[in-house]
Design a protein that fits this description.
single chain, mainly beta, about 5% helix, about 625 residues, 35 strands, 5-stranded mixed beta sheet, 5 helices, globular, 22-stranded antiparallel β-barrel
Length: about 625
């Protein structure tokens, strides 16, 4: 089957190559997340934020998520410590966008367009998304289910991996140390020689964090090998693996002992890509997998637990798409996705290692298959008008078939600005945990569904550009637990506004800001009603200074009868000095105003912290 698809793709491309014409489209900010193939963002009706590697690395963060949170309006990432998010009860790293939560599997993280989440619980594993592998991050706000299926109902975060573009060798070493015994070390090497390219990176980090029994340690590595057969065809294989050990101290009011976690996550993929002037596409296979070992801990250190919770999961898929310009101003994309999702949750005895009873139907083991086909049609009606429509037919081996449509329009009243309107459906299939694991499980669950309506304006005025979005989200069939049973009775009704602006004042100064307002008829924990960020970059001779002020208002840390909201303001900054060619000294400070605040209820965040080190590039 794969050979047939590749052969048909090759013949299709050769036919179109013979008809190649000059494309008058002048590319500005090019993205791949909203359409699979590289396209000028001005012709897409959806809202996409692009964060380049230069921005991802300027604060020397090992994870992409702190920078993504600063740069994307409406996106919130929970935290509980200096470093490390962890998993299970009390974990941080929850990603929320416009009140739609990744903790419930409603927000999808991709690596090169391939879904990444825990196969049993259906949520992202935030400690896996390391800066060492990222060339850039693209965040699509609003449903992306037409292209990416289940879990993309609230949006997607797509990590586009690194590759060497020019012949040569480049090596980078970054070392840092600071508050609470925190250490981070990263090394990478990139090479291109003719048609062959490679990227290899390794990372180690650890910290004691600011509370007892809250240590975190992580090892990670990334490898990518690429080969260009000719100007139009290339292939690559890559692998990313991370292992982390994390301890969970419990809330201040209810401390825990021996609550430890040992987690391994991995990703492997291979792709064959084609790039012609009028058509492009890819055939890829991928798998992401995890091994989790968790001690739930005890309130009494004299009475340790007698078992470990363990789980194994894997999401393996095949993806094919081809995008073509059939006639002037047109772009048609068709694709097929297949996924096999496996999960196995169980307990083992600490004393004997034997498998113990697991409160799980189907003997703790489960798998499901999903197959889908989609089509996206985009047409420039005139130089000032583009229409877009897409449709996905998604079949789940348990919950059945789902139709997912979307439609949008782009009006360009001037060459420097565009108005966008978008209507899109998002959905999420229930997870294995919700259907089979623990007493609330329910095998009769149906998919969650929502509709998103969005209107946006973006304008570029030389060195200054700004944008504004209005959105309304209406959803039903949300899965919630009522009387100890998971049922499809929850609802979502959110609306809000987002603003963002960037001003390159001169060669020395750059300012950027973004703000989001959100109203939720049904509040969600860890989501703010207002989030604002103001950032500044200063460059002069050997000095680079980056500073950011972020305000979080109306953050829900409790909902329901005990509803609580918190406000706080954070000032972060980093300074870099070029000591020698390619060798920089750097220091980073976080929460420089020494604010007392919580994001996860019961987990006070540290006051001011500092980290310093060297960055050597040669």
């Amino acid at each position: 089957m794969l050979v047939a698809i590749a052969a048909s793709t090759f013949l299709f491309n050769e036919k179109l190559l013979a008809e190649e014409v000059n494309d008058s489209l002048s590319l500005q900010e090019v993205v791949v997340t909203g359409t699979r193939n590289a396209v000028d963002i001005r012709h897409l009706p959806m809202t996409v934020t692009v964060i380049e590697r230069e921005k991802l690395t300027e604060q020397h963060q090992t994870s992409v998520l702190p920078t993504v949170m600063q740069q994307v309006p409406g996106l919130m990432v929970t935290s509980r410590s200096v470093m490390g998010y962890g998993v299970s009860t009390g974990a941080a790293g929850g990603i929320n966008l416009r009140g739609i939560t990744g903790g419930a599997g409603q927000l999808l993280v991709l690596i090169d367009g391939h879904p990444q989440y825990n196969g049993v619980y259906g949520h992202p594993i935030s400690d896996s998304y390391q800066t060492l592998m990222a060339d850039r991050v693209e965040v699509l706000r609003g449903p992306a289910s037409v292209l990416y299926g289940s879990n993309a109902m609230g949006g997607v975060i797509n990590i586009v991996t690194r590759s060497m573009q020019k012949d040569g060798v480049n090596t980078n070493i970054n070392l840092g140390a600071g508050s609470y015994g925190t250490i981070q070390a990263e090394a990478s090497n990139q090479l291109r020689s003719g048609k062959f390219s490679s990227t290899i990176s390794a990372q180690y980090s650890r910290t004691d964090n600011h509370r007892p029994r809250m240590g975190f340690e992580q090892y990670g590595g990334y490898l990518k090998l690429g080969y260009d057969f000719n100007a139009h065809w290339n292939a690559y294989v890559d692998a990313n693996i991370t292992h982390f050990n994390s301890s969970y101290p419990g809330k201040l009011t209810s401390p825990l002992y021996d609550a430890d976690q040992w987690i391994t996550r991995g990703v492997v993929s291979a792709a064959l890509e084609n790039h012609y002037q009028r058509t492009s596409g890819a055939l890829s296979v991928y798998t992401n997998f995890g091994r989790h070992k968790i001690d739930d801990g005890t309130a009494n250190p004299e009475e340790p637990t007698n078992r470990y919770f363990r789980s194994k999961d894997a999401l393996t898929g095949i993806s094919w798409y081809q995008s073509a310009q059939l006639f002037e101003g047109n772009r048609l994309t068709i694709g097929v996705d297949y996924q096999h999702i496996y999960g196995h949750a169980y307990y083992t005895s600490k004393q004997t290692g034997e498998v113990m009873d697991t409160p799980n139907k189907q003997s703790g083991k489960s798998y499901r298959n999903e197959i889908a086909g989609y089509i996206d049609f985009r047409q420039d009606i005139a130089t000032w008008l583009t229409i877009d429509a897409g449709l996905r037919l998604d079949h789940h081996s348990v919950t059945g078939t789902e139709w997912i449509p979307q439609a949008g329009i782009v009006i360009r009243p001037m060459t420097t600005g565009e108005i966008k309107a978008m209507v899109s459906k998002g959905f999420r299939n229930p997870t294995m945990r919700e259907m089979y694991l623990y007493p609330p499980s329910n095998e009769e669950l149906e998919p969650e569904r929502l509709w998103n309506y969005e209107l946006s304006w973006k304008h570029r005025l030389g060195a200054f550009n700004y944008g504004a979005n209005l959105f309304y989200i209406k959803g039903d069939n949300m899965i919630q637990t009522i009387e100890r049973k998971n049922v499809n009775t929850g609802k979502i009704e959110n609306y809000g506004m987002e603003l963002e602006a960037n001003y390159q004042i001169n060669n020395h100064w750059n300012l950027n800001t973004n703000h989001s307002l959100l109203h939720m008829e049904h509040p969600v924990i860890a989501v703010p009603t207002y989030k604002g960020f103001i950032g500044a970059n200063y460059y002069y001779n050997k000095w680079t200074v980056t500073a950011g002020l972020q305000y979080i208002g109306g953050l829900y840390i409790e909902v329901g009868d005990n509803e609580q909201k918190k406000n706080f303001c954070l000032l972060n900054a980093s300074v870099s000095y070029a000591l020698l060619k390619g060798l920089h000294l750097w220091v980073r400070g976080e929460n420089l105003l020494a604010q007392s605040y919580e994001i996860n209820s019961g987990y006070p965040m540290p006051r001011a912290t500092f980290l310093g080190g060297i960055n050597w590039n040669f």
